[in-house]
Automatic annotation (TrEMBL):
Pfam families: Peptidase_S24. Gene3D superfamilies: Umud Fragment, subunit A. Signal peptide: none annotated. This is S24 family peptidase. Residues 152-232 form the Peptidase S24/S26A/S26B/S26C domain.
Length: 276
């Protein structure tokens, strides 16, 4: 879907989102840039327009990701957490030999019992698709003649991470080092090397080290996690530069995404191993 400017403005108004918020979804994009997209004759870059269309489509399916009524007296709800918190929850679930969904329900039920001792309750069983159990420590293992690795979430690449992603082991062609895990890519800012919708295998990074120039990294800050190429740019006035006068910088591979992001306030969580 490629919406018109009027449709985008109506969507922002109806969802009570600001242009500042829309700018924040695309790296270092400024509100002024969004103003130019929506209030002038300037064309919105095709990659950005496609990503906004995907966001609007996700909102149209919001009944599937927000609290909503379902047949009977049941309710479905979703929660959004950062990658580190998700991994912590996932490890807790695996330790109890539960899926993440089962662990969340069990934890909530136990808290209800603690608050209302002696009160009986009905636990609604989860319907879980058949798949290998999640790994206690990230990495690959052989199951049924194949190799499997945990898909633990998504990573932004010019588009927000969809709420519809299913976290589950995925089959891969070979074994990867211990600690590796998989992420689904949302957006085309790293195309053509990493197309929208790709699954990437990444390896946790020691934050005390500095990646080599050209390394693809998972970078996380207050706005979430994104896929970028690590490199350097010339320092500006007031920035702490290295001996060569450079500062670390993060770039997209797709030339349509021209913004260069510095690493202030963020961290490198992982580095790319392979696109699968």
């Amino acid at each position: 879907m490629q919406p018109s400017k009027d449709e985008i403005k109506a969507w922002l108004k109806n969802t009570q989102r600001s242009r500042e918020w829309l700018a924040s979804q695309f790296g270092d994009t400024k509100k002024k840039t969004v103003d130019n997209w929506l209030s002038s004759n300037q064309d919105i870059p095709i990659g950005i327009l496609t990503s906004i269309g995907r966001m609007m489509d996700d909102d149209r399916r919001s009944e599937d990701v927000r609290i909503r009524e379902v047949p009977g007296d049941q309710q479905i709800f979703s929660i959004q957490v950062d990658l580190q918190t998700f991994r912590t929850y996932n490890r807790a679930a695996v330790a109890q030999r539960l899926t993440l969904e089962e662990w969340v329900i069990k934890t909530c039920d136990e808290e209800v019992v603690r608050m209302t001792p002696g009160e009986e309750k009905k636990i609604v069983p989860m319907i879980v698709a058949e798949a290998p159990a999640a790994l206690t420590n990230y990495g690959t293992r052989r199951t049924g003649g194949g190799h499997w690795i945990d898909l633990v979430g998504g990573v932004a690449a010019g588009a927000p991470i969809s709420s519809h992603i299913v976290e589950a082991p995925v089959e891969v062609e070979k074994e990867y080092p211990e600690g590796c895990y998989a992420l689904r890519v949302f957006g085309d800012s790293m195309a053509r090397k990493i197309p929208d919708g790709s699954i990437v295998v990444v390896q946790p990074w020691d934050r005390a080290r500095t990646p080599k120039k050209g390394t693809i990294v998972v970078y996380s800050d207050a706005s979430g996690s994104t896929l970028k190429e690590f490199g350097y740019r010339k320092a500006k006035a007031g920035e702490d530069a290295d001996a060569m006068g450079n500062v670390p910088a993060l770039r997209s591979l797709n030339p349509l995404y021209k913004e260069v992001q510095t690493m202030e306030g963020g961290r490198i969580d992982a580095v790319l191993v392979e696109v699968v």
